[in-house]
Amino acid sequence: MKRKLSKVLLINPPRVILKGRERKRADYPLGLGYVGAMLKMEGFKVEGLDVLVEGFNTDQDLENGRLRFGLTDDEIKSRIRASDPDVVGVSNLFSDGFPLAKHMCYLAKQVNPDIITLFGGNHPSAIPENVLRWKEIDYIIVGEGDYSTGMLLRAISNGRDLSRLPGIAYRDPEGNPVINPFIEPIQNLDILPIPDRSIFPVLRYSEICAPHGDEVKQTPYTCIITSRGCAARCIYCGGFNVHGRRFRPRSPENVLNEIEYLVRELGFNEIHFEDDNLTHDKTRAMKIFRGIIDRRLNITWTPTSGIVFYNMDREMLTAMRDSGCYTIWVPVESGDPVTLRRIKKPMPIKRIAGLIREIKELGMAAKGFFMYGFPGETIEQMENTFQFARELELDYSTFFMATPLPGTEMWEMALKENPELADPDFNFENLKFAKSNLAVGGMSFDEMERMRRKVWLKVNWNLDEDESPPPGM
Fold this sequence. Notes:
CATH class of the largest domain: Alpha Beta
Helix content: 25-40%
Distance between the termini: 56 Å
Number of strands: 18
Strand order of the largest sheet: 3-1-6-7-8-9-10
Structural class: alpha/beta
């Protein structure tokens, strides 16, 4: 049956955090920006609603020390009603955000049962059959949604059969889940338009200044991504669920053109690179850094997700500094060689200390990511990580508990130790990096969580667990 679809409302949902253990954050939603830009090119009218940033100061206390922030349900329904869309598309990047993300679809159906709801992101791409159990979700965009979203909406508008349409999941007339094959990843990313920053209140992110990377040197700032896919096989990372395992970069010229547009036309002073692999290809990375200098863009920037270190040297670090980099996050993860091999993390552990010293000698800050509590990890191996963190000359270190994410190798390993994860009604809100889901090394969940604060205080400020960190930390 044909049904003309012309207007799409893209929603970035609210979040729930653990009070005292997680910070409120809101960054421009790049994935929705890309999808919105493509839909506009294809003739759809597109509006955006970032519930997080527009309701950043609206808090709702929940049970068990949780806090929801973002617009209220009534405010969200009012905005959906005012937009009057044919389609509501919801982003579900992280598994712990699934309950509230699907709730956006429920609210849309309350406003108008005829609204078609789309769901996309890492979580639904990893376990689409589980997500389709929820009747308020009509369709899932599986994998990259740049092309498949428009293809789906045109197919619905024209009453075409969906069974041959790649990159989607849905229910057949009998209510059974249908998971079509992934759409082929886009090899030439330069053909895509840059994210449409007009559909969200783009300057509001700088006003609240609560970025993913915790740090802003200049405002206004915004984030970009210059590549997709990662060839590494780290057992804990779910990014491949959407972008695959092949590194696909945008060309340096394409990246520089976007940065120049953001600086010259939109007035941004700082860029946050959200790549997993910004420095994977040294030649390409150097062209970007030197291009920022040659074009006299005069920005500050930081790689908020960390950078790969296996090809890092002083030449690259110098180019990074000279082009405006002020902080480098180092994804060390573990200081135990056995654990690094087990989690398949390609980290040149013997070179880290020297590279950190070089970063600081060049005038940039060096900050580190660490993770502990992997399946099978011993207390001794965790202590090796904590000792390594103490020995490194990092300006700041943050510690996460190893968290099994659907679709990852670690998820399959964790199922053996925690069968509760396999419950169809498992509350994915529990999959937080500040909350333990695995009792490893003979430690309880509570002991694992207390260890996080104890180590954080000791490594960063040499404080005991009953002492308070500096204000604002």
